[in-house]
Structure formats: structure tokens, C-alpha cells
Sequence to fold (390 residues):
Amino acid sequence: MDPVQTGLDVIMADGAQRLRGRRVGLLVHPASVDRDLHHAVPLLHGALGRDLRALFGPQHGLRGETQDNMIEWDGFTDPLTGLPTHSLYGEHRKPTPAMLHDLDVLVIDLQDVGARYYTFVWTLLLCLEACAEQGVAVMVLDRPNPLGGATEGNVLDPGYRSFVGLAPIPMRHGLSMGELAHWLRRQFHLDVELEVVAASGWKRSDWHDTTGLPWVLPSPNMPTLATATVYPGACLLEGTQLSEGRGTTRPFEILGAPWLDPESLMAAMGPHDLPGAVLRPLHFEPTFQKHAGRNCGGVQVHVTDREEFRPVLTYLALLTEIHRLWPDRFAWKEPPYEYEHEKLPIDILAGGPELRAVVEEGRDPRTVADRWRNEARAWSIAAAESRLYD
Fold:
């Protein structure tokens, strides 16, 4: 089998000839690397020289040093290239006309993790909109979806649009960034010149660790593929006062709170018979963020069969049981969250109020999760025209 090549590998095979003579902007983050772990900035700067005019970075910064949730970063001059580096997570999440005025094409190379809440896809959308308005072309250097092509979860209610969901896609969407770019252009009728440099050799059934590509954490709390595997369900914890394991070495796989008794939760979770996962009771002490420095009881989600594992169902069941066992201690996180100041964080993460109602009313999580799963599959069929891979 031929090795999988990312869009960056493909375009650099001939020294980025298709970009020569064009004024180029480049949107990247730490995971924008080729198969040999060379980063896109020095690669394209070396190939294009003065034609590379500006750099852009999404949430967490071009260099990935800033933590989550409303921590903004400012633009700077890149010390390696001397290029202006613009922040797209802060004062401006959408490129301004001034940022784009000297460009013919904006090249986007961002590793996604296959979940609606991960903000890089929404930075992609805002770039498509800005470039459509300014007459700048967009080129997406595509990368495999690390979770393959499976879908799960509800499709976002447009009334709950936010920076963790700006379009009606499922919680786990099953597309690559390049495919999403095509879908978003159609969905919003954007008059923008779009070229996607496809990843070669990737099949939709391939998980990241079968591609031979290196894993570089695309954000500070996405250290491994195991983290990404649970994330389509585990990110919902951000809408609660439960620790989602930030400040530990296993973010999103670990959850808990100082008042949570692991054994009681384990007993309550037994009847759920969750596929593809085993829960392990534990205690942990986060070093930062929620409950920092306090001993928390909780569980770790160990994925034993990732093809059968249903992250949305798993974490919805956990939230339902934790609320049932400790209704006076469980609490939803209050706004602001990801630039939303009115709606509850859980509602914008969940793409509507139904998930919160399921938890608060103690409804069977499998019933709603199964319906949502069918909803996601229907969306996937409707989005088939945007697919680039088998």
C-alpha cells in the first residue's frame, strides 16, 4: 500500500509550483507538518520566498501555546520569516480586509479531530467568507480525519450557532477539512475560488494510526489519538462544572469532581452496557483549570473497541447518572463561553437544549442517542457530494 500523503506532502512534491508567482497567506498551527515532521511555514517560505506574505493562526495560536476557552492571543512578527502573523482567535476571528489586502490566495493547513466543537473548522468557514468578500482564492491542504468516516450525535440547530458550531453538522462529522470546505461553500453559497489539495492514499475507514502519519497535538489538550477518539462525547463536559481532565496527563479520557464517589458512579453505569469501552474508577488532582489542586473522584474511559465505541452515547450516559446521583452538586457551566454570553455552554455545545433536558429529566440516553445517530447518518448521506475519498 502506498503511504498516505497529506495535502502539504503533495504540494511540496514539486516545490509548491502551483503557488509560484502568487501572493500567499498561510493559516497553520503546530500540527501543520509533513510526513517527516517539517512544518509548513519553513517549507513554504523556502519554496516561495517573498511570495509568502503573511501567516495566520487559529485558536491556541500558530505555535499552539495558549490554553482553551476565551484565552486570546495577539498577532506578532514571526522571528523565523519576519512575516506578519495574524491572530484569528481574539479581537478578530474572521480575517479583516487589511489582513487579506496583499494576498492572491490563502492556504489553509489545519489538522482537525473530526468533532463539531473543535473550532478550526469554524475558522475555515470564516476564512472562506472573508476571502469570498475580498476576492481572494482559498487553497486547503487536506489531511485525513483521524477518526475515519463514522458519524454520531445530533445535527446542530441553527438557533444555537456559536464558535463551537456555526453550521448544521453532527457532533462527529466524518469528513476531512477539505471535504468540509466544499460542503461549507455549498451550504452558504459562497462565491469563492476553492481548491482542495487532497491527501493521497487515504481511505475513509482509516484511523490516523493506520496512515503512517505522525501525530502532533493540534491543540494543548489533544495530546494523542486516544484523546481525539473520546472527544466527540467528552467535549460536552466543558458545559459542566465537572473536570474534563484538563490539568492531567489524560484530558477528556478522565472526568470527575471533588464530591464524586467513583464506586457509586461505577455501580450506576453498569446497566448501561456501553459498547467498546470500559470505565475505571480513579482519583486525580488537576494541576490547573476546574478543581485545580483538589482531589477529585471520577472515572477514566478506556476504549477497548474503537469501531464499536460511541463517544456521544458514553458521555451522555455518564452525565445522566452523575446528575441522578448528585443532583444538588452537579451544575452546568455558566456563560460566557466561546464568545457566547447568553446561552448556556452546554446548549451551544450540544447544538440545542435537548441534551440538557435528557440529563435533567433522567431520560434513557440510548433512546435519544440512537435517534441522533440516525440523524447524523442522514446528514452524511446528504453531504456525500462533498466527499473526496472512498
The mean pLDDT is 96. The chain has eleven helices and twelve strands. The chain has two domains: 7-216+380-386, 225-377.
